């Protein structure tokens, strides 16, 4: 999704390049508040007193394990299935494993990438949002959905005091508005409708055709009347 939004931005605003930079989840809010980024795709919750946020979607939580782990035999893993495993909880991770049923994490690697290396070494398993499992995919590792487990909500966030026109443009793209959308900052001025022209009725120019050789309505016996009269029959006269 982020790549799609960047592509749409560059198509609509080619003179204002949008650069997408990946940062550790734990540092995203600090970068926004420090002015090092205009907006960010962050995991909730964020400090709503200083940051604005538009929730976008919620990611499924999965557990990353070696391919020969026992839980690969099932389609869905429960927290109880990991009771005998060391659950790695990276310092840059925002998922609260402690809130899940079962025991808390025992290892705190610095980053998710470091935790992936420990999983590959067989030291523990890792609970992360699905996108991070895909981002750090390795051939010797796999993942399974973890249920029940809290999802990880992703939001578009920016400093409350820095709601600029460009941020409004980005909000429109992320929300799927078209370039001609009437919502948001970039509204196109409404075009004045031209008054509808009255349709003129075509003038009747056809005339009745006159029969050949005379004026209209002339009878066989001449004259100006219409239908010719039949000859009048007289009564027989009586003899004198």
TrEMBL record:
Keywords: DNA-binding, Transcription, Transcription regulation
UniProt keyword annotation of Transcription regulation present: yes
Classification via Gene3D superfamilies: Periplasmic binding protein-like II
Gene Ontology cellular-component terms listed: protein-DNA complex
Region (Disordered): 173-240
This protein's record includes keyword Cell membrane: no
Ranges of compositional bias, category Basic and acidic residues: 191-206
MF GO annotations: DNA binding; DNA-binding transcription factor activity
Ranges of compositional bias, category Basic residues: 230-240
Compositional bias (Gly residues): 214-226
Source superkingdom: Bacteria
Domain spans labelled LysR substrate-binding: 5-175
Pfam family, one: LysR_substrate
Family classification: Belongs to the LysR transcriptional regulatory family.
Name under which the protein is recorded: LysR family transcriptional regulator
């Amino acid at each position: 999704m982020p790549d799609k939004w960047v592509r749409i931005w560059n198509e609509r605003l080619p003179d204002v390049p949008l650069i997408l930079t990946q940062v550790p989840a734990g540092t995203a809010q600090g970068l926004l508040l420090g002015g090092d980024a205009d907006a960010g795709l962050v995991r909730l919750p964020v400090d709503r007193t200083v940051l604005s946020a538009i929730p976008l979607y919620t990611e499924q939580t999965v557990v990353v394990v070696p391919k020969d782990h026992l839980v690969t035999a099932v389609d869905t893993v429960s927290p109880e299935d990991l009771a005998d495993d060391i659950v790695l909880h990276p310092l840059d991770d925002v998922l609260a494993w402690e809130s899940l049923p079962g025991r808390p994490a025992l290892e705190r690697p610095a980053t998710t990438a470091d935790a992936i290396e420990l999983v590959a070494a067989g030291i523990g398993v890792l609970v992360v949002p699905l996108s991070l499992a895909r981002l750090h995919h390795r051939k010797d590792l796999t993942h399974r959905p973890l249920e029940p487990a809290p999802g990880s909500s992703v939001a578009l966030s920016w400093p409350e005091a820095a709601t600029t026109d460009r941020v409004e443009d980005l909000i429109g793209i992320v929300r799927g508005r078209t370039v001609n959308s009437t919502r948001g900052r970039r509204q196109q001025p409404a075009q004045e409708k031209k008054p509808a022209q009255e349709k003129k009725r075509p003038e009747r120019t056809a005339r009745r055709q006159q029969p050949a050789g005379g004026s209209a309505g002339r009878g066989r016996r001449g004259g100006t009347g219409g239908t010719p009269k039949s000859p009048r029959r007289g009564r027989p006269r009586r003899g004198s």
